[in-house]
Amino acid sequence: MNATKRGYGGISSEERRATRRVALMDAALDLLTESGVRGVTKKAVCARARLNDRYFYEQFDDAEALLEAVANDMTAAGLRAVATATLQAPADVRARIHAAADAAIEFVVADPRRSNILLISHTDAVLQRIRLDSTRAIVRSMSAMTRDLLGESAPSQLDTDLAAFTIVTGVMELVAAWMRGEFDTSRAHLADVVAAMLMTVAEISTTIPASGQ
Length: 213
Hints:
By secondary structure, the protein is mainly alpha-helical. Helix content is 73%, strand content 0%. It is elongated. It folds into two domains: 1-60, Arc Repressor Mutant, subunit A (Orthogonal Bundle); 62-212, Tetracycline Repressor, domain 2 (Orthogonal Bundle). It starts with a helix and ends in a 10-residue tail after the last helix.
């Protein structure tokens, strides 16, 4: 039997590698929360994850690549959570959009460490670029979901993309401000507000002239 499949203690080499990857990424999130991006070094991450540095280089070229991987995995997990909630909601546009808004907020507040990459503004150039990449991925997903939900009544691709970018960036700043305590309101009310904002994407097809293309 192939050693890769057999592994040790019934655990394959691929599973052990995946476990080490999760440990490194989790350590990076902890350090980012505690000390900012400068605290996310190879030495500190390995010490926190209790792994030899050779396992770091097995997965990542440097700390920047690690942070990018953390953001990419986090964004993908958030989008999966939103997609699942949307599909499980009643087959009504408003209900599904509200489910998407609630799931997105729940994903962030479930682990406050996530806000350091997805929401909170940073002066560090690396995190700014990572956040922009995450924002673009969320915008693409939201635009596609909106067009799928609205079907033939959906706005043009351009208008949907423009609206999605405007709303996603605005919502991210709103949730970040709410998490900082700048708005004294419940999570449920915040989800209602965000859902109402998302609904505007469905309405722009009736308010923007066709010549806007």
